[in-house]
Structures are given as structure tokens and as C-alpha cells.
Design a protein that fits this description.
This protein has 2 domains: 2-99 and 314-404, Rossmann fold (3-Layer(aba) Sandwich), CATH 3.40.50; 102-312, FAD/NAD(P)-binding domain (3-Layer(bba) Sandwich). The protein contains 15 helices and 18 strands. The strands form 4 sheets. A 7-stranded mixed beta sheet has the order 3-2-1-4-18-17-16, sandwiched between helices. Strands 6-14-7-8-10-9 form a 6-stranded parallel beta sheet. The chain has a 3-stranded antiparallel beta sheet with strand order 11-12-13, with no helix packed on it. The chain has 443 residues and is an alpha/beta fold.
């Protein structure tokens, strides 16, 4: 059995691992449009999160398996067509994840100074396909959202550049952050503290900077029966609420930067003519079941930039149906469904493109297991692909497509670590795509 997986993030790598464990004779090729593996673990996790990045160790172990081959710098639907993969593989699993920002439909959202969090994260993580400069000119900034990405963005904006220097932050990002004049970052959550989506670890990290004062505004620290029920049901929510209540009760100290947390404030308009000059929010009230409704009380906040971090969204996939509202491919237990509701033979999905951008790594593993079970139920346990593994690489060569490999990534990995070593840093990321390809190709 030979299977192609599109997407070398956790969803794709876990799918390959589960499949090869279930069928020891199976071989898997994992394609990615980037020259490097790991997806959002490399390009979506804040650089000051070394503990979260430890998951790379587990993913590295999977990709070391000789039955699993990484083929990077190959864009599915552009460099290789779906029907071409059908010539070389018994099945294709799409695990492309989600890297776009979910839209926020309020007036002023398109003003200069209004940004999507995903774009900002791609910039500070050194994604090769985004511009290498960022307009950090605001002294007061608003971040909209109550999840881990919102917390990451707020923390990176609030910290001083030198605090991030010990991480793998790219040099150009460090230099740009050094010029940031920010003094206040305001994080707004539409719901109350009992409905937060971030983890206790992410929350605690907000308060670890010696230069940033975290201020919880007490006006939104309210709870209804629905909130209390969620606190009782989820230990992580209770831990977050305990942290927030402690912060709300303390006396602020004088620091160079402030990070404000506001609950029960919903954004309704970004203000400005020609550029962002403010954010208007409507105070919310809890309805008893944890939901909220507007009170008709509005506040205008003096900010010069707004970052929306209200969720990721997947991109449409070549030649597959796509639900734009949910950002997912329609499926039945991982089997892709056509517009008529019938299964499309040989096509499967796993990860966020399958279930939406929710859940943690544990959910990703469970999700991959379901998809692999469906694939194995559909296909016999014997090899049916009629081509040799080398044929795919020969096909790419005939098309003039330069691909990267697992051995090439290991060379680039060592190179980045060596770049950081003289400066006491974990690594210095290589950002330009061609530089990554060239370093990966050195023998």
C-alpha cells in the first residue's frame, strides 16, 4: 500500500505514523508546499514557546521512519495535480491545516492598521511567503480574541524585543520589534472569563515579563450559572479564572508597558478615516447560560492598530468540495464527500481541514486514527499501486520541480542551530525560501 499525504504538520505526520503502524508494509510520502516540515508548529507557534515546540521531537521520530518520506517545496494542485497522485498512490489524505484568518465583519475592518493575527504570526515566525517588514508604529494596540493565538499576539506585541532575543525569532523581526513604540496592548474578549479558550500555561506566560504589567479590568469579571457550570466541569477553565481573579485584585506596579485584559466587550466598529484611530466596543451581559447579549453601552478606545485573532480558516483544496463557512472539506469519518453526497474514491481528510481549527494535539491524533481506519476499511491490506517509489521523484524532476527531503531538512536544522550558537540562541531561522532550498541541497 502506497499513500500520499498532503501537509507535513502534526495532522499529516500523525496520520502517516498511525497508518504505518497499522500496516507495516505500507509506505507514505508526505508532501508540503513549504521546504520544511512541521507546519504551524514551525510557523504558527510563538517563538517564546519552547515547551510547546517540544512536540517537534515526537514528530521528528516519526519522520525518521524509512517508510515515511518527506517531499517539500511541492504545492499540491500547482506542482502536482490530484490526478497525477492517483497514478502513484492508492489513496491521498489531505491534511493541509488552516493558516488564514477568519473574517470579522464590522465597519472599518479593511482600514490600514487593521490586521489579521495569522498574518502577524507568519511574519514573526519567519514564514517564507510573507513580506519581511511589519508596520509597528502604534503606541496603543487592540487585540480581539480569547484564544491562545490572541494571547500569543498580545504577548509578542507587549514584550520588548530583547526579551525575545534568546528564542529562534528571525533577525529582521527582532530588529523591527526594537523600533516598536507600543506602551499599551488591550485584549478584548466578547464573553466572560468563564468562557475563555486559552490554556492556563498560555495565560501565565503573559505575566512573566519584567517589563510588562498585566492589568485585568474588573468591569468584565462576571459569572452566571452557565459560567460557573463550565468552571466546575473543566479544570483548565477554573485555573484560568483563578489566575485572572488574582490579577484583578492586585495593585498595578509601574512598568514600561501595560497589557490590559477586558472581558464582556464586543468589537462593533474600527474607527478612522484613512487609517485606524480607534476601536468601538459594546459592553455585553451574561444571559444565564454562558451566552452574552449587547447592552447598548458603547466605549471608544484610543488605539492606532487592531489585530483580530478570532480563529483560523482553511483554504480551498484543488478539485475538492469546500464548505467556506466552516473552512472544511465535507467528509464521512474522513472519507471526502462530493457535492452529491457520495464518497470520492481514494480521497481522505485529516486534521483542521477535516474538523475545523479547534482542539489540541490529542484531538489531532484521535482525528487521524479515524481517518486511517476509514482508509484501511476501504482498501485491501495488499499493495495495489503499480509504481515504484522512485517514480514520483522522477516525475517531479521531469516537471522541473525542485523538492526538499528529510535529509535536507536535517541539514537546514543543523545550520539554523549553528547560526544561533555564537549568540546563545536556540537557533536563527533561515527565512528566504530559496536559501532554505539551497542549504537543504548541500551535500
Amino acid at each position: 500500500m502506497r499513500v500520499a499525504i498532503v501537509g507535513a504538520g502534526p495532522a499529516g505526520i500523525y496520520t502517516a505514523d498511525i497508518l504505518t503502524r497499522a500496516v507495516p508494509t505500507a509506505t507514505v510520502d508526505i508532501f508540503d508546499r513549504l521546504p520544511t516540515p512541521y507546519g504551524l508548529i514551525r510557523y504558527g507557534v510563538a517563538p517564546d514557546h519552547p515547551r510547546i515546540k517540544e512536540i517537534i521531537t515526537a514528530l521528528h521520530h516519526v519522520l525518521d521512519d524509512p517508510r515515511i518520506r518527506f517531499i517539500g517545496n511541492v504545492d499540491y494542485g500547482v506542482d502536482v495535480k490530484p490526478e497525477e497522485l492517483d497514478q502513484f498512490y492508492d489513496a491521498t489524505v489531505i491534511a493541509t491545516g488552516a493558516d488564514k484568518d477568519r473574517e470579522l465583519a464590522i465597519p472599518g475592518i479593511d482600514l490600514p492598521g487593521s490586521f489579521g493575527a495569522a498574518d502577524f504570526v507568519s511574519w514573526y515566525d519567519g514564514h517564507p511567503d510573507v513580506p519581511r517588514d511589519w508596520p509597528l508604529t502604534a503606541t496603543r494596540v487592540a487585540v480581539i480574541g480569547a484564544g491562545n493565538v490572541a494571547v500569543d499576539v498580545a504577548r509578542v506585541l507587549a514584550k520588548t524585543a530583547d526579551e525575545l532575543l534568546e528564542t529562534e525569532i528571525p533577525d529582521n523581526v527582532h530588529q523591527r520589534l526594537m523600533t516598536s513604540p507600543v506602551t499599551d496592548v488591550h485584549l478584548f474578549s466578547r464573553r466572560g472569563p468563564g468562557q475563555v479558550k486559552f490554556t492556563p500555561q498560555e495565560l501565565r506566560e503573559l505575566d512573566e515579563s519584567p517589563n510588562v504589567e498585566v492589568i485585568v479590568h474588573p468591569e468584565g469579571m462576571e459569572f452566571d450559572e452557565g459560567s460557573l457550570a463550565r468552571i466546575r466541569a473543566k479544570r483548565s477553565v477554573k485555573m484560568c479564572v483563578d489566575i485572572l481573579q488574582n490579577w484583578a485584585a492586585r495593585t498595578p506596579t509601574a512598568r514600561t508597558r501595560n497589557l490590559h485584559l477586558h472581558f464582556l466587550e464586543a468589537p462593533v466598529e474600527i474607527l478612522g478615516q484613512g487609517r485606524v484611530t480607534g476601536l468601538r466596543t459594546e459592553t455585553q451581559e451574561l444571559t444565564g447560560d454562558g451566552s452574552v447579549r449587547g447592552t447598548g453601552v458603547y466605549t471608544d478606545w484610543d488605539v492606532q492598530a487592531v489585530y483580530r485573532a478570532i480563529g483560523y480558516l482553511s483554504r480551498p483544496i484543488a478539485d475538492l468540495p469546500f464548505d467556506a463557512a466552516t473552512g472544511t472539506v465535507p467528509h464521512d469519518a474522513g472519507r471526502v464527500l462530493g457535492l452529491d453526497g457520495d464518497r470520492i474514491p481514494g480521497r481522505y481528510v485529516s486534521g483542521w481541514i477535516k474538523r475545523g481549527p479547534v482542539g489540541l494535539i490529542g484531538h489531532t491524533k484521535k482525528d487521524a486514527s479515524e481517518t486511517v481506519a476509514s482508509l484501511l476499511a476501504d482498501l485491501p491490506g495488499k499493495q495495489t499501486a503499480s509504481t515504484h517509489p522512485a517514480d514520483m521523484l522522477a516525475h517531479l524532476a521531469r516537471r522541473g520541480i525542485t523538492h526538499t527531503t528529510w535529509a535536507g531538512w536535517q541539514q537546514l536544522d543543523r545550520h539554523e542551530i549553528e547560526l544561533g550558537r555564537p549568540h546563545g540562541r536556540t537557533r536563527v531561522k533561515v527565512v528566504p525560501r530559496q536559501d532554505m532550498i539551497d542549504i537543504s541541497s548541500v551535500r
